[in-house]
Specification:
By secondary structure, the protein is an alpha/beta fold. It has helices spanning 2-22, 65-81, 92-100, 111-119, 172-185, 189-194, 204-213, 228-231, 234-238, 248-253, 292-303, 306-310, 314-319, 336-344; strands spanning 30-31, 34-35, 53-58, 83-88, 106-110, 131-147, 163-166, 198-201, 218-223, 239-241, 259-263, 275-287. Helix 2 crosses helix 11 and helix 11 packs across helix 14 (336-344).
């Protein structure tokens, strides 16, 4: 009888232990069966969301600098924060509008879009406000080039009667180029056509191919440097960067969404001089309505894991530095969540 009672007590004890074990919550972050510690803030609190957060991102065409950055950052957000990001292609202007309409959570665009939108200028028919940024990405730099064999184009002003290759209609590049040509030289699309030239809206690779094949005379590109699409024709037929006039600084002084940039000599084959040009910082744009805590965590997780992202993306490795994370100030205010992080690490006071 005593043995039977002891057996029943042992069974009851084992049942209690099993129940206790089965009620233990699963690890917060698992990968391949192994447990990994969650990201924490400076106080040791977890940054990882208990439930998966979904965000939408619009960037550039696949293979472009913006797309590459998003592809390198999203796995970090997934691992450290339990935030899953969908990445779609887009353009600077359309991405900005998509954020303003609530169609995407993050839109990679350019500082100049913020500046123009807040004033109802450039491509915007009326003012658009309520948008901010998480971080500066890279200096998107204007590069004007032709075949090394083409000697008829001495400066940008000489494109008035040439076959020109521009980016997609409505892009930040096109808005800048056409506005600059009109204000500085009185060159318009109609006048280019009247003089026997043409304007062709093309992808970066098509512009380079067009110059190589003699279909167009000059190409305009916007992005980091050296730009891979330009490098493709460095040797055949060879390239020559076309300088802006001395009035570039005058133009930039009235357009705070753009700044002066110098591409160092030897960046491209055959480039023996520094190349002064214009740049508009690429930025990660969000709505002011984005949850402050989410914005803070997205920014913190990226910058604290920048080296990992840099190993997968040359644009991050070469251009994204914490000290320039707040560089795009004119017309591109920071989101409160981003400000919180940059103050925390001393980038902002």
């Amino acid at each position: 009888m005593l043995k039977k009672s002891l057996s029943m007590l042992m069974v009851l004890a084992m049942s209690i232990m099993v129940a206790a074990c089965s009620s233990t919550p699963p690890p917060t972050n698992t990968n391949g069966g192994g447990t990994k510690s969650a990201s924490t803030d400076k106080n040791g609190s977890s940054l990882r969301y208990a439930e998966t957060q979904m965000i939408r991102m619009l960037t550039s065409a696949p293979g472009g600098g913006m797309y590459n950055i998003a592809a390198a950052i999203s796995p970090i957000w997934q691992e450290k924060l339990n935030v899953t990001a969908s990445i779609g292609p887009g353009g600077s202007y359309s991405n900005f509008l998509a954020v303003s309409k609530g169609e995407t959570d993050i839109g990679f665009c350019h500082q100049c879009m913020h500046y123009w939108a807040e004033r109802g200028e450039g491509p915007f028919q009326s003012k658009i406000t309520g948008l901010s940024t998480l971080t500066t990405l890279f200096p998107a730099t204007v590069q004007v080039f032709t075949s090394a064999k083409n000697t008829s184009i001495k400066t940008v002003a000489d494109v008035k009667d040439k076959r020109i290759g521009l980016g997609p209609q409505g892009s930040a590049l096109n808005i800048f180029v056409l506005d600059y040509l009109n204000k500085m030289y009185g060159i318009t699309l109609d006048k280019i056509a009247e003089a026997g030239g043409s304007v062709n809206y093309m992808s970066d690779s098509d512009i380079s191919s067009g110059i190589s094949d003699g279909i167009i005379d000059v190409g305009f590109a916007l992005g980091t440097y050296p730009k891979s699409s330009i490098q493709e024709i460095e040797n055949t037929p060879g390239i020559r960067l076309i300088p802006f006039g001395d009035d570039l600084q005058k133009y930039l002084a009235t357009n705070p969404g753009w700044n002066k940039m110098v591409i160092p000599a030897k960046t491209y084959a055959g480039q023996d001089k520094d190349y002064p040009t214009a740049t508009s910082w690429a930025v990660a744009t969000v709505s002011n309505k984005m949850d402050e805590e989410l914005a803070y965590r997205l920014v913190k997780a990226f910058w604290e894991n920048r080296e990992t992202a840099a190993g997968a993306c040359v644009e991050i490795k070469n251009f994204m530095k914490l000290e320039t994370a707040t560089a795009a100030k004119a017309g591109a205010p920071l989101h409160p969540g981003a400000i919180r992080y940059y103050k925390e690490v001393g980038v902002l006071k």
